[in-house]
Amino acid sequence: MTPEPRPHVTDKFDDDGFPAHTRGRAAEMIGTTPAFLPAVGEARLIVPLRSEGGHRRYSRHQSRIAARARELVDQGTPVDAACRIVTPEDQLEEARRLNEGLRKGPAGPRPSNDPSSSAGS
Predict the structure, then answer these.
(1) The 3-state secondary structure of 70-100, one letter per residue
(2) Which of 6, 15, 70, 98 has the fewest CB atoms within 10 Å, i.e. is most exposed?
(3) Tens-digit pLDDT profile for residues 17-37
């Protein structure tokens, strides 16, 4: 029995959920101070993963969410309120992405005259 090939380490960097960035790097990427990220963490918008050494690590997805919160804060929205706005926005985007994937299915998009794509089935 041959062992399964292990994914190459750099393949993880293509994973939107891989916690690749330090707090400082994530803050730099979204144009804020490193203190902003724990603030949105306290509001439960994002929860960073921890490295083996206990350091916070942020994914690209978490950085995008934090960037959206920062946009709202820059417009005068309090951090807690910004997080309450961004959470359902992110959930809606995820639902849309999943829905689109289900529509395409393994064979691609279904033609509109396909009876299996109608709401009544």
Answers:
(1) HHHHHCCCCHHHHHHHHHHHHHHHHHHHHHH
(2) 6
(3) 888 899 999 999 999 999 999
- Beta strand residue intervals within the chain, DSSP E: 21-22, 49-50, 56-58
Angstrom CA distances, 39 to 32, 33, 79, 118, stand at: 12, 11, 8, 46
Beta bridge partners of 49: 57
Q: Which residue is it, tokens 């992110």?
A: 90
Query: Which SS3 state, helix, strand or coil, does residue 54 take?
Result: coil
Strands 21-22 and 56-58: antiparallel
Q: pTM for this structure?
A: 0.71
34: DSSP letter: T
Query: Is the pLDDT score of 104 beyond 90?
Result: no
For residue 57, list its beta bridge partners: 22, 49
